[in-house]
Design a protein that fits this description.
The chain has 157 residues and is mostly helical. It has one domain. The protein contains 6 helices and 3 strands, in the order αββααβααα. It has a 3-stranded mixed beta sheet. The termini are far apart. The N terminus is likely disordered.
Length: 157
């Protein structure tokens, strides 16, 4: 007997939520999260074995981005390097940095939706490029980042 034929089904993009009973801001400000500097036993991503790797926290990412002045942009790569230097590591974990940048971005937009003004939220658009994969994943779409970067003269060439 032949196996039933598989039919293609349309898969909808799931909306990322902060977690049961938590807001995005709760995830940024979680007091139980502490940074870790660990020595790598083996090569990982762009980091060789024996390197010291910082695993930051969402709050650290948030604080870093808040220091970027209006009209200036940064990058995830630069942020990772700066944080590693500040905390005595050789590198900052690329995986958790990307995840935490997403959490910070979603939290800032969540605050905006709750009535905060732009100058009170974390200006994540100064690190999230309008063409980046992260921008395409944000729950509120790509337009917000593009508009904010345009207003500050930060659009990619």
């Amino acid at each position: 007997m032949a196996a039933p034929k598989k039919t293609a089904s349309k898969v909808s993009k799931p909306t990322m939520k902060p977690g049961k009973g938590k807001t995005w801001a709760d995830k940024v400000n979680d007091p139980t999260k502490e940074y870790i500097v660990k020595k790598l036993d083996k090569d990982f991503a762009d980091m060789p074995a024996g390197s010291k790797m910082l695993i930051a926290t969402p709050k650290m990412i948030d604080e870093y981005i808040r220091q970027i002045p209006k009209g200036k942009s940064g990058s995830l790569t630069t942020m990772r390097r700066d944080l590693a230097n500040e905390y005595g590591a050789d590198y900052t974990c690329p995986v958790t940095s990307g995840i935490f940048l997403r959490i910070v971005s979603e939290a800032a937009h969540e605050q905006l939706e709750k009535g905060s003004t732009l100058n009170k939220i974390t200006p994540f658009w100064r690190v999230v490029d309008e063409k980046s994969a992260l921008n395409k994943k944000l729950s509120f779409g790509t337009e917000f980042v593009m508009n904010q970067r345009k207003k500050e003269g930060l659009l990619s060439k």
